[in-house]
Amino acid sequence: MDEIQRVYSKLESLFSKFNFPARRIYNVDETEVSTVHTTSRIIASKGTKQVGTIISWERGKNITVCCAVSAAGDYIPPMFIFPRQRMSPQLQCDGPTGALYKCSKNGWMTSELFTVWLEHFAKETSASIDNHFLLIMDIHSNQSHIIVFIFLLERERHPHHFNISYRLQPLDLTFCGPLKSTFNKECETFLKTHAAEKITPYDIAKLFNQAYGRVSSVEKATNGFKRNGIWPLNRNVYSDEDFMAAMNLSPPGEGSVLSLIDDDNQIEGTSQQLV
């Protein structure tokens, strides 16, 4: 809990220094969607021996989608990263308005692509030297992104203020789960209405957009920040018991939650097990 309280103390200092309103506090996170969706639970009569559902027979290909949302409920158009060498306009068909579409060898975020996303974020938010933003992200799984971000800050290209990171991000708490569930339902509907067809990467943007439109509400965004005490700031939102339970559910050897970057853009603190 001492490490947790350090984060809230840092937040208090940043809010006092920069007077961030809710619209300048953002969380960015990456999620994956696939051409082979997860099916919903099937209910059948007791004793039924053959129960099935329709899935795509296309070999699963994971596409990364980078989403960002503010504590006021503003959504940055997402960025799709497809596992291929070249981008095709067909991959963008009926996708979210203003979205970006990029490629990488394995469909994962890279430092170069994160730089592109930062440019996208700056354009959408009008971030500038005099218009600071607090951007929350999972730095433990994106160390290379941090290096890019610090580099950009030093060059004063995008002086949004990057400060804290921990496992229970706002998007993870209230948005990503419902988004994936709704996306899977859209895939099931597609397969039921398109007999003998499979889901391909060219269908992903449209299916994702349908799910994204249903889930991306102001309430889901603001509740994520509220539940972890970022906005409104509430340092008492978690107890020792909350993090003991979280650690018991973590895979063996996996650390916990907290790291932050100080005002001089130096990484401060490391991941620790809060036990």
Quick take:
This protein is α/β, with parallel strands linked by helices and 275 residues long.
What does it look like?
By secondary structure, the protein is α/β, with parallel strands linked by helices. Helix content is 37%, strand content 16%. The protein is built from 8 helices and 9 strands. The strands form 2 sheets. The chain has a 6-stranded mixed β-sheet, sandwiched between helices. A 3-stranded antiparallel β-sheet has the order 7-8-9, with helices on one face. The protein starts with a helix and ends in a 7-residue tail after the last strand. 34% of the residues are buried.
Number of distinct beta strands: 9
The main β sheet shows up as: 6 strands, mixed
**Radius of gyration from CA coordinates:** 20 Å
Task: Note the total helix count.
Answer: 8
Read across the widest sheet, the strand sequence of neighbours is 4-3-2-1-5-6
Strand content: 15-25%
Give the CA-CA distance, first to last residue.
9 Å
Low-confidence stretches: 40-58, 158-163, 249-275
The dominant shape is: globular
Which structural class fits the helix and strand makeup?
A: alpha/beta
Helix content bin: 25-40%
Spell the H/E element sequence. Answer: HEEEEHEHEEHHHHHEE
Q: What would the average pLDDT be, to the nearest integer?
A: 78
InterPro entries: CenT-Element_Derived, DDE_SF_endonuclease_dom
Domain DDE-1: 64-187
Protein name: DDE-1 domain-containing protein
Organism: Periplaneta americana (American cockroach)
